Amino acid sequence: MKILLTGANGYIGRRLLPLLVEAGHEVVCLVRDPRRFELPERLSQRVQVAQGDLLQPDSLTTLPTDLDAAYYLVHSMSGHDQDFVRAEQESAENFTAYLDQTTARQVVYLSGIANDQDLSAHLRSRKAVESVLGKARHAALTVLRASIIIGSGSASFEIIRDLVEKLPVMVTPRWLNSRCQPIGIRDVMHYLTAVLDNPACLGQSFDIGGPDVLTYKQMLLGLAAQRGYRRLIITVPVLTPRLSSWWLFLVTRTTFSLAQSLVESLRNDTVADPRRSIARVLPHACMRYAEALALAFTRIEQNEVISSWKDAVSSGVMEQNYMDFVQIPQHGMLTDRQTLRFSRPPEQVLRNIWSIGGRRGWYKVDWLWRLRGLMDKAVGGVGLRRGRRSPTDLRAGDPLDFWRVLVADRAGRRLLLYAEMKLPGEAWLQFRILPHSDGTHTLEQLAAFRPEGLAGRLYWYSLVPFHFVIFKGMVENIVQYGAADQATAES
Questions:
Q1: CA–CA separation, 15 vs 47, rounded Å?
Q2: Cβ within 8 Å of residue 466, ≥6 positions away
Q3: Deepest in the core among 66, 236, 329, 363, taking most CB within 10 A?
Q4: What are the two backbone dihedrals, phi and then psi, of residue 184, each rounded to the nearest 5 degrees?
């Protein structure tokens, strides 16, 4: 089958793509910016990358029309206003109009369980999108409604993990007593592939969930038990949704808009309705909550996190084209350039560059980097808590603490980062290893800042004394890190 996959850069899309290819399908990945879509070599023969923006219908006119099916995986938990609702509706309408010009027989949409009467804005938006997609003239709609998805890199899992690992005692809002039916990401993948071209699933909506119905409090305590922690959770009625959102934002790695959306949605029970259970059509033994947690931690420990909710930029689903910044501007820039010549094997230094941030840290006065992250978090920025997808691997589009990876060219020995922190301007940080004819190499580290007005210039010059210590120390420590261990191993 020829399948169009929207949201191919997202948490679900990245995991679904290889499964579709391995099943023998030809897949067209719809992305807004092909530059941030890194396609594994093993998939390239059966995958076509197409550029388009669902908010710009003209950009969809060049997409293929000879489709058999499509997956609609475009949605966000980062918006929280009428603009977000309108954007989601408009995207679905444009997609449906395009779908009507194709030969697609089916469209599959992953939505949220919405069985309460008084739904949050996000769950109402999901149902509205279902209605729009259901109006397609030829493509029968299949809807899978899920509650909390548990898997390495999922937003729900990471937030629960943050709360449990950081807070021995939690004073929490009443929504922790709401009920949900968590489902493992592996089981979500099973259902997404099993409904494809299945006659019994055409024109149908199904609730999907694991065997456990739990309150959010029970989920937190379940993860604590899994990790061997003892935690005390106290629920109080006085925490308003806004206070609860700030609490989540400050304690976890989530953005404030995502925290706000989650808090609003968590007031609804998200338990599968037996009358809409997919088990009637596709019997399948889903993992229990504890099993899904164990698998997620195993993947993390083995550095096999395929995708993460942090892959989306902080501004949400309708993100800026940040890959436009892959070239550092030449004019109007303030820069700090550090170089250091070295004789050790360049791959060892490159390995240190590729391990920067996250648990490894930034190689010099890490407490200052953490302080800068706290300051960023305090003003609504992403802070340092996003960490890394993998401790040793980087790819274009990855989040890296409060940076975004623009270029991760290991063969060319170049790493370029773009700042997503709150700044009075724009900032880049670049690392390059340059060869010399005598067999030695130079590590070049370039910090570049394009200030916005007087505030931007004052910001940069106020940090110059710190730059002298931080940036000079960084380049030295990146070159030297692990050299003693390597020498000992070789002796």
A1: 14
A2: 368
A3: 363
A4: -70, 145
Query: What CATH class does 325-490 carry?
Result: alpha beta
H-run or E-run covering 19: helix 11-22
pTM reported for the whole predicted model: 0.72
Phi–psi pair at 53, nearest 5 degrees: -125, 120
Boundaries of every domain in the chain: 2-307, 325-490
Tell me which fold the domain 2-307 belongs to.
Answer: Rossmann fold (3.40.50)
Q: What is the pLDDT of residues 208-250, one digit of tens each?
A: 999 999 998 999 999 999 999 999 988 887 666 667 777 677 7
- Cβ distance 342 to 443 under 8 Å? yes
CB atoms under 10 Å from CB of 434, counted, come to 14
Phi, psi of 331 (to 5 degrees): -120, 150
What are the start-end ranges of the H helices in 206-322?
A: 216-227, 241-251, 256-265, 289-301
Q: How big, in percent rounded to 5, are the helix, strand and coil portions of the chain?
A: 40, 20, 40
- Alpha-carbon distance 143 to 129, whole Å? 10
